[in-house]
């Protein structure tokens, strides 16, 4: 029997994560948590079952939770929600698409989602509460620290370090051995 999981945030990123959860097949989505009641309609058929203020009560019923708020210009909401889940002792899994490739020699921390067709090679370390989005490539021996978003189609070449709370935009290319600390805009080349 699959475990139930609640998702915090009902926007576009939530829809993408739901698709990965359904394909992965480990969890069944119990429902969506939003900031305010009435803020969201059902997401892909999953109901709004509570608000951020009700997480303590919801913890009595649900063991698993996951942050499904996206991260573009700021990840402050993602970080705050992740820390709240940790403080309430929710189990926060890592969620990995069965259509992604993650080397058995890579490490992925809790709260991170690896979306469809992402590639994570040997020696890579991805921290907590990260988004590795669709078709992102993280090459050998990269380090992606906590609370980062590696966007769709972004490429991190070998030995890249992405500092905590950074964003690498869609289609950006980060060349071998570079350090990213902050915001990299879509289509950029970081040398």
Overall description:
By secondary structure, the protein is an alpha/beta fold. α1 (12-24) links the parallel β1 (3-8) and β2 (27-34). Helices cover 16% and strands 29% of the residues. The protein has three helices and 21 strands. It folds into two domains: 3-87, Rossmann fold, CATH 3.40.50; 95-183, UDP N-Acetylglucosamine Acyltransferase, domain 1 (3 Solenoid), CATH 2.160.10.10. It has a six-stranded parallel beta sheet, covered by helices on one side. The chain has helices at 12-24, 55-59, 76-87, and strands at residues 3-8, 27-34, 48-51, 64-67, 95-96, 101-102, 107-108, 113-114, 119-120, 125-126, 131-132, 137-138, 143-144, 149-150, 155-156, 161-162, 167-168, 173-174, 179-180, 183-184, 189-190. The model has no long low-confidence stretch (mean pLDDT 96). The radius of gyration is 16 Å and the shape is globular.
User: What's the architecture of the largest domain in CATH terms?
Assistant: 3 Solenoid
Order of helices and strands: EHEEHEHEEEEEEEEEEEEEEEEE
CATH superfamily of the largest domain: Hexapeptide repeat proteins
Number of domains: 2
